[in-house]
Specification:
Strand content: 15-25%
Shape: globular
CATH superfamily: Glutaredoxin
Largest sheet: 5 strands, mixed
Radius of gyration: 13 Å
Number of helices: 4
Helix content: 25-40%
Distance between the termini: 15 Å
Length: 114
């Protein structure tokens, strides 16, 4: 996966805009918990998309707590970490946290990968 680091609030507007063209994934990572590292590893190793027609953002919640709160507010989700959000057409269509983050569920969403 090619991660784009989510480090400023202007990127949230870009995520919304881009989500009308491609699926946008946001992974909220906590360096303070091993579960977050496990969830990230599982997601990357089980990633269902062969084609690269998506955007994936990585958000370090310790370094960017304010942005993490803005993401939660913008997309109407409760903050968790680790957490994976899928944004399509400006809305969060998938929200999972901790070990509930599973790449195979993304296939079930029929998120376009091409």
């Amino acid at each position: 996966m090619l991660w784009i680091h989510l480090i400023n609030d202007n990127q949230i507007d870009q995520i919304v805009e881009d989500s009308f063209q491609v699926p946008v994934f946001i992974f909220k990572h906590s360096r303070r918990t091993s579960i977050s590292s496990i969830a990230l590893h599982r997601l990357e190793s089980e990633w269902p998309f062969i084609r690269q027609n998506y955007k994936a953002y990585y958000l370090d919640v310790q370094k960017n707590g304010q942005i993490s709160r803005m993401v939660a507010e913008t997309f109407g989700v409760h903050h968790e970490s680790p957490q994976l959000l899928v944004i399509l057409n400006g809305e969060c269509v998938y929200d999972a946290s901790h070990l509930d983050i599973q790449a195979r569920e993304l296939e079930a969403l029929r998120v376009p990968a091409a």
